[in-house]
User: Fold this.
Amino acid sequence: MLESQKPKIYQEGKERFPAWWIILENLGYLLNWGLGFVLLMPFKYNGMPIVSWIYLIILVIIQVLLKKHNCASCYYYNKWCHLGWGKLSAIFFKQDSGNPDLGIKLCISYILQLPVILVAALIAGFVYGFTILNVSLLVVFVLLNLLQGVVLRKKGCEVCKVRFICKGSAAK
Ligand code: SF4
Assistant:
């Protein structure tokens, strides 16, 4: 963190988030990504859900890059942030070893996930047929994304130490 940023730290923010918060948020993301994987499964090649696997590989690559280019230069590097990813980043990457400008660009993946999977799942439904299970999972996926993107993200940012500094903050 740059010296010039320190005065803007939100003093009342949490220095360390509780374990229940970190676990619940991570479970929410795992559920979100898992639903994305399942919703893409109708696209198959030789019986293999090839699009789901491509989605998973891209997701893992982007998440690894985010740990380097976002988390390694965050105030919460090597700390228990609301996702615990500051600690995760410290295991694999040196502090300030990433490119924060690239990191913020990669965050667009969080915004794109909902429309891309939604459109793909609808196309899969029209091509391969809608099932009650797939429609139900799609509804859960949309609601979960809205809950995470609109409600929970703001809640986390409101008690974050870098809410006034972070380019991705929903509570400036
Ligand atoms: S302000 Fe929000 S997006 Fe930025 S590091 Fe804190 S919780 Fe994450």
In short: Residues 3-158 form one domain. The CA atoms of residues 164 and 172 lie 5 Å apart.
